[in-house]
Design a protein that fits this description.
The complex is a heterodimer of chains A (about 800) and B (about 110). Among the domains of chain A are: about 170 residues, FAD/NAD(P)-binding domain; about 110 residues, FAD/NAD(P)-binding domain (3-Layer(bba) Sandwich), CATH 3.50.50.60; about 55 residues, no CATH class; about 150 residues, Sulfite Reductase Hemoprotein, domain 1, CATH 3.30.413. Chain A has 28 helices and 37 strands. In chain A, strand 14 and strand 15 form a beta hairpin. The longest helix of chain A has 18 residues. The radius of gyration of chain A is 31 Å and the shape is globular. By secondary structure, chain B is mainly β. In chain B, a hairpin with a 2-residue loop joins strand 8 and strand 9. Chain B has a single domain, classed as Rieske Iron-sulfur Protein. Classes of the chains: A alpha/beta (about 800), B mainly beta (about 110). At the A-B interface, helix 3, helix 13, helix 19, helix 28 and strand 37 of A face strand 1, strand 2 and strand 5 of B. Chain A: Keywords: 2Fe-2S, 4Fe-4S, FAD, Flavoprotein, Heme, Iron, Iron-sulfur, Metal-binding, Nitrate assimilation, Oxidoreductase. Chain A: One of its GO terms (biological process) is nitrate assimilation. Chain A: InterPro entries: BFD-like_2Fe2S-bd_dom, BFD-like_2Fe2S-bd_dom_sf, FAD/NAD-bd_sf, FAD/NAD-binding_dom, FAD/NAD-linked_Rdtase_dimer_sf, NasD-like, NiRdtase/SiRdtase_haem-b_fer, Nit/Sulf_reduc_fer-like_dom_sf. Chain A: Its cofactor is siroheme; [2Fe-2S] cluster; [4Fe-4S] cluster; FAD.
Chain lengths: ~800, ~110
Amino acid sequence: MKKKLVMIGNGMAGVRTIEELFKFQPDGYEITIFGNEPHPNYNRIMLSTVLQGDKSIEDIIMNDWEWYKNHGIQLYSGEAVTEIDKEKRQVTSDQGRKVDYDELIIATGSSSFILPVPGSDKKGVVGFRDIHDCEMMIKDSKQYKKAAVIGGGLLGLEAARGLLNLGMEVDVVHLMSHLMERQLDETASEMLKKELENQGMNFLLEKQTAEILGDERVTGLRFSDGSEIQADLVVMAVGIRPNVQLAKDSGIFVNRGIVVNDYMETDVQNIYAVGECAEHREIVYGLVAPLYEQGKVLAANLAGIPANPYEGTICGTQLKVSGCDLFSAGEIGDDEGTKSIKVHNEFDGIYKKIVIRDNRIAGIVLYGDTKDSNRLFRMLTKREDISGMTSVSILEANGCCGGGEAGDVAAMADDELVCGCNGVTKGTIVEAIRTNELTTVDEVGGCTNAGRSCGRCKSLISDILSYTLGDQYDTSAKKAGICGCTTLNKEEIVAEIRAKGMTNVREVMNVLGWSQDEGCSKCRPAINYYLGMVNYGGYKDERDSRLVNEKMHANIQKDGTYSVVPRMYGGVTTAADLKKIAEVAEKYDVPLVKLTGGQRIGLFGVNKEDLPAMWEDLGMPSGYAYGKTLRTVKTCVGEKFCRFGTQDSMGLGIELEKKFERLDTPHKVKMGVSACPRNCAESGIKDIGFVGVDGGWEIYIGGNGGTDLRAADLLDTVKTKEEAMEITGAYLQYYRETAAYLERTAPWLERMGLEHVKEVLADENKRKQLNERLDKTLERYNEPWQEAIQDNGIKEKYYQVRSVTVE
Amino acid sequence: MQMTKVRVKVADYDSLPERAGQAVTVGGENIVLFRKSNGDVKAVENRSPHRKGGTLADALVSGKFIYCPVYDLKISLDDGKVQAPDTGEVKTYHVEVIENEVYITI
């Protein structure tokens, strides 16, 4: 019979211990885990990125439900253990569940320390420790305006930045005279404060909170000096407290944390503690790297493998707030036994301080430039004697003439840490790269865990890849990277297609020596596009090489249903069309009918097999809301009805949309036409936008309102609609011929340069040729929804769902 | 309840298009058939192993691999395994082609 292992706590340290255990002994235990949060194990370090809006909660899940299932782990989530019976070797949960154990791990982590001041139990007072806290803050930010964060340390500042991102005004209250005083000296702290003030934070230093004001919900804070501030959300980020109550109640020796020896054993046989709840040699750790080291030692112990004892960790910290690049480790203050090297470049906002004791680095503070943090941290942890080095060579990486980074990697010993969070050494990474033929940073992470926690070491991993693979890495990963199937970049591929007159995808992959015969989801659509662009006279499109939405002529939704968006030229419709859309929505029981951002109506949540019939009932052309093509032309009402309008914006918009619809482009293309500079159609953030002025049109290009916001640049001012159409054609075709697949016009224009594009489009002869090729290309398109309705082959291949009954 | 495995005819071979998934529900199970370009037919559960779910019928097919249409996971049709750096596995079914008839065992 397998031994029973029970773990109380389902967080990063505990689950990592189980992962390490599987490496030693995949099948040694029957495992049960209790976690009081209703989530699988997630990356707690990344909570601040969730709050700051960079990641979703789903993104930070590290072990999903499937992982527990696949490893045969019985997980009770949302269930807390309330009792440990040491004699019977049994735990009891708050649901009354009793589970026996042979070995028990306590990994209960820690909680936010809530200041014991009057009012701290009011509504609107939260810690910053888990998903629930995060969700509370996000919810409250929608309703309330003023937040106060108590605590000017790492956690408090990250929370404050998040609340700023959520649109709140933020006061940061700190007891000490300097921010992050445990990690930064005065100079660095002052620089950080200035930067954060610029970002919009307000600081109240040397303030001791005496009372939280308000009735049911918090309304403000009162300090010990009698002053008050208003606040309708208070975040407590003054520190963490190990969750030890259960252990204490069960008679396990507890000091600040649950006291463990070098093998993570408590004073009770068969009970272990790991993570933030454990106290080792009088230290309770709150950072991930030591916790993972502890997990490794405990896993070896549980697997019965002799392991090195855990001897404590020196920690380095960084702040995850954009614009504040800082790193700190070890001792930061000076005393009579230390001497330090300081560099303070006020002009560039860079500060470096290396504290030296007995000819060895004892502490590091870096602000504004942290690229040497790994190297210096290594020197610190390895206690390297630096008496032979000059101060310059300590502060700057070895090597000259740009050899810096890679040379740095070459000089690293194999046992040196690359990823501090996960304890992965250079040697481990190099070996993983060689044995598993890894070529990307993500693959290295998948194989070794390196870079999977805070992500700071990713650039170093990239350097190691380049050092290990040599030129191979350069060519396969850095050269415009079309995909892993080839080392050729876009320019080379297009040149080969032209030179050899190639006309289909398989031929390209065959002739150019693709490593995967039929390509991948990245290169297949790209090659299909390039072939269609080069062979504009008559390319036979390869539908099965298109991205799924283009293949299906509908947008796939996350549950496998699709959306239908009919064309509505220039955003102009009729009562009859609206009726038809309404009837179709009712007939097919469409779950969501919504106006889209591009001035039309979307029908969402449609079953795939209903698509052709719906299209037929609608009798409208596809709006291509799914395609790398012209999406919509947004228009304002214009001179027809608006008293400010100087031009016929709807007329130009409709003409543009009718002419250029269905055209394949490297990425989606959006247009806007406004009849006056008030710009109601937002022409300034479109791939090409028009603004009506007295006597003509201004044409703007390269705008983007999406992920990378970019204001469009003025290309030209023209007098007539015909000129506007002609320039648009030439512009689109030049973009089609020179952009890489999936490159929007905004980065394309940055790359090509506005002046260059202006020059090309100013040349009448070039414009004419570009338009000729474009017009020829436009001849090859058919309306795809009509095609599907009329062609049973297409219907059967793409839209049918077969059904077989089992006797 | 003890389940016995049954062999079920799910399609005519010549009705299966090359390199495009065909969704088929068999006694309540959602399955998708892929005819690879070498002629072999493979069957997997029509559910993406990605934790956010989704279907696989409209996946891009390349040799013995498919690419999940929503999350771009690369999945082997031979054993259902998601390829690194992603992880996961989709259920596969045993397929037999006899004459022009395609059978799977469920």
